[in-house]
Amino acid sequence: MQHSIASILMICFAASFAMAQEDAIEWRFQARHGDVVLTANPLGQASRSAFYAARGFSAETIRPYAQACGFSFGMQNGGQQTLTTQLTDWVAIGADGERIPLRLPEAWDTQWEKAGVSQSARIAFRWAQFQTANTFEPGDWIMGMATLESKPSSPFRLVARYHDNKGNHEIILDKLECARD
What we know:
Blueprint: H1 5-22, E1 29-33, E2 36-43, H2 45-53, H3 59-67, E3 70-77, E4 83-86, E5 91-93, E6 99-103, H4 105-114, H5 119-128, E7 133-136, E8 141-148, E9 156-164, E10 167-176
Antiparallel strand pairs: 1-2, 2-3, 3-8, 4-7, 4-9, 5-6, 5-9, 6-8, 9-10
Helix pairs in contact: 2-3, 4-5
């Protein structure tokens, strides 16, 4: 895919703006394991519906995503080792002990394709998601949205696993609740 100079400059501007704004976000939940930080904010139905309506989704099509228990996540590697994450290794554990996986962006994308959502809207969706697989070099960070397969009993915890050259690790966000609309 070719990009025009203008589109490349817009991507660079957006990335630098996002990096500057990352410090300005007030995260409701935060946990640290060594030099790795995980943050989260619950996202309500109205905000996700509006966000994706502005990117080409119909209200009816985006409704299941907007009604799911969703969060904006941020993760930063403040250490000196490369680390990797896989959302398939993350799990929410409800107050009742039920284990609930995250619904991967690819599962949503399959649903959007079947519903006939435009390619441009689907690309916008993918870009705003916390990606299924991530590699973080020292100093790297990412922000993105993600949803759970179902709503856990509250309060629940999220166990986020990652791997570096020293092995497997977990960061635990406690006392989470889905947004209340």
